[in-house]
């Protein structure tokens, strides 16, 4: 793994890349977008495993305010999901990404959909993992339950291990945005309808932050496959709970001629 800090108008953006031992030069890189509490480090060994299994370079980055990237100057705006498509320009330019595949986890999947539509000239395929297409009661209930858990100092210490003194901002950005009035009727429908590339919606059957209606909505509004892929006996974080099965579900999609 190699890492770099990108200079952007908003400050430094931390990014990392993994290259397989036997790369397939005909295949474009996969870019990972992390979840609401995530960062590069919390992908753990999944990027390296995905790179080796797919023969593709894998790139991940910390969004502004997360991980090793620069702090956010204030509260995260309600438009943060759509805004990430603009922030992606810096990453694309730095790595020279003429063509790429997007894989986003949870809210990172929502952002990946926004990016796929606005960078349609380069996005070959989109994968959403445990992403939300709309706000539903179980999403809000799961977030509130997690918020209670973070009242324990040990839980906040684990968050601070990855985000440093930005940890409280990270937590509040997640909890407060999803429970805000602006998000009461939020949907990803507009972004999904702009996606022009093949799209695979993956979801754990026991996901605690979204029902099966979430991947169904994503699959129904994008070019397909039209049927989402449910991961049995898996919750919200497949890359930690069942990485082997997640990669096994990804490989046929990534190998298809329509995603190259």
How does this model look, in words?
The protein has one domain: Rossmann fold, CATH 3.40.50. The mean pLDDT is 96. It is built from ten helices and eight strands.
Keywords:
260 residues, alpha/beta, Rossmann fold, 8-stranded mixed sheet, 10 helices, globular, AB_hydrolase_1, AB_hydrolase_fold, Pimeloyl-ACP methyl ester carboxylesterase
Concise synopsis of the structure shown:
With 260 residues, the protein is α/β, with parallel strands linked by helices. It has a single domain, classed as Alpha/Beta hydrolase fold, catalytic domain (Rossmann fold, 3-Layer(aba) Sandwich), CATH 3.40.50. It contains 10 helices and 8 strands.
Q: Which class do the helix and strand fractions yield?
A: alpha/beta
Shape: globular
CATH topology: Rossmann fold
Report the strand count. Answer: 8
Order of helices and strands: EEEHEHEHEHHHHEHEHH
Could you give the distance between the termini?
A: 24 Å
The unreliable regions are none
Strands of the biggest beta sheet: in what spatial order? 1-2-4-3-5-6-7-8
SSE layout:
Layout: E1 2-8, E2 11-18, E3 30-33, H1 46-54, E4 58-61, H2 80-95, E5 100-105, H3 107-118, E6 123-129, H4 137-149, H5 153-163, H6 167-178, H7 189-194, E7 199-204, H8 213-221, E8 229-231, H9 238-241, H10 243-255
Parallel strand pairs: 3-4, 3-5, 5-6, 6-7, 7-8
Antiparallel strand pairs: 1-2, 2-4
Helix pairs in contact: 1-10, 2-3, 4-6
Protein name: Pimeloyl-ACP methyl ester carboxylesterase
Domain AB hydrolase-1: 29-157
InterPro entries: AB_hydrolase_1 (IPR000073), AB_hydrolase_fold (IPR029058)
């Amino acid at each position: 793994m190699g890492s770099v800090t990108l200079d952007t108008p908003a400050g430094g953006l931390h990014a990392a890349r993994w290259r397989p031992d036997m790369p397939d030069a005909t295949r474009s890189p996969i870019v990972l977008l992390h979840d609401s509490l995530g960062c590069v480090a919390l992908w753990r060994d999944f990027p390296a495993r995905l790179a080796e299994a797919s023969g593709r370079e894998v790139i991940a980055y910390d969004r502004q305010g997360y991980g090793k990237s620069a702090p956010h100057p204030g509260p995260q705006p309600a438009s943060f999901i759509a805004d990430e498509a603009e922030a992606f320009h810096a990453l694309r330019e730095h790595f020279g990404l003429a063509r790429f595949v997007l894989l986003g986890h949870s809210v990172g999947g929502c952002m990946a959909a926004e990016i796929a539509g606005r960078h349609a000239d380069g996005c070959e395929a989109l994968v959403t993992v445990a992403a939300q297409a709309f706000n539903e009661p179980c999403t809000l209930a799961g977030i509130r339950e997690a918020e209670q858990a973070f009242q324990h100092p040990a839980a906040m210490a684990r968050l601070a291990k990855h985000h440093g003194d930005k940890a409280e901002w990270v937590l509040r950005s997640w909890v407060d945005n999803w429970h805000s009035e602006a998000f009461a009727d939020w949907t990803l429908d507009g972004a999904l309808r702009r996606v022009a590339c093949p799209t695979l919606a993956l979801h754990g059957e026991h996901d605690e932050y979204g029902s099966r209606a979430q991947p169904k909505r994503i699959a129904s509004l994008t070019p397909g496959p039209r049927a989402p892929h449910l991961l049995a006996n898996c919750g919200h974080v497949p890359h930690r709970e069942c990485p082997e099965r997640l990669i096994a579900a990804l490989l046929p999609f990534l190998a298809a001629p329509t995603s190259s």
